Amino acid sequence: MKKAIAATLAAAILLAASACGKNSGAKETQSETPGITGISGESEKTISSELSETEEENAVKSENSIKVTVGGASFIVDLENNDSAQALKELLSNGAVTISASNYGRFEKVCRLPETLPSNDVQIKTKPGDVMLYSGNQIVFFYGSNTWAYTRLGKVRSLSANELENILGGEENEVTIDFE
Fold first, then answer.
1. pLDDT tens-place values along the chain, 180 residues long
2. Is residue 27 classed as helix, strand or coil in its secondary structure?
């Protein structure tokens, strides 16, 4: 029994020493098991792969999102994967676009785009945070609801209906759209 305890203790010390030696230059990682940090060997490669995939997902998310500024407030819109959203990204490829805006019906801010985008309108009941293309040449940011024929461009990320109304419902008459 004493030999088994001694062997286990020796193995634990060797494992700890090898983990410290192999972790140079790498970021320390926190495992799912509380109190255990620094993973070596094959597990470390798996964690690195997962981090790379997460970074890749963030890069894709960034490529598929835009920043919208209204007055002094900005928010992020995650774009749909459709021809209209792609055309909007192409429009922004030369830099930020500042467009005139107006409120309509106390539920949306409407902005006339400098060019017409491809559309595929369908009857939609909007919700706060929806970003739609109307008539191919107007982008509409919803802080309330409406039912009409639109092409979905995207969805505002992480804002409540009240926050959206505070940002979009004001008298600002310009909106700037740019990549995140």
1. 444 444 444 444 444 444 444 444 444 444 343 443 333 344 333 334 444 555 554 444 468 999 999 999 999 999 999 999 999 999 999 999 999 999 999 999 999 999 999 999 999 999 999 999 999 999 999 999 999 999 999 999 999 999 999 999 999 999 999 998
2. coil
Largest CA distance in the chain: 81
Output the pTM of the full model: 0.67
Least Cα distance to 72 among 180, 178, 176, 179 occurs for 176
Which residues have C-beta within 8 Å of that of residue 131, sequence separation ≥ 6?
Answer: 77, 139, 140, 141, 142, 152, 153, 154, 155, 156
